[in-house]
Amino acid sequence: MILGRVVGQVWATRRDARLSRAKLLVVRPTGIYEPAFGQTAFGQTAFGQTASGVRHLVATDELDAGVGDQVVVCLGAPARASAGGNDVPVDAAVMAVVDRAEIDPKALAAVGAGPGIRRKLTEAVR
Fold it and tell me: 20 to 30 A Cα–Cα from 43, which one of 20, 23, 33, 69?
């Protein structure tokens, strides 16, 4: 799951029949996902901000989230399951509309504290 902000909505009059009632939102992952989604020219980003190269996600939404809302998005098989099954063409789905999120910048900077983990895999399995 990832944390992101809804920055837009997608309207499509012609779509797969299995998505006929699905609301489609454009979600920008928050800055804590920078190592996974891109970095600035200097390899750094400010806390809570995204670099210009960050990808956006299109996620289905059954929770009535709106532009500006912070949301939790799940990817892959859990997103398809929430949309009705493995044969549904969904890769991302809104799982929660966030009321409040607290992130400790010190914990975020700690070794192994997120995407781009800074420890070797052999250390993680001990």
Answer: 69
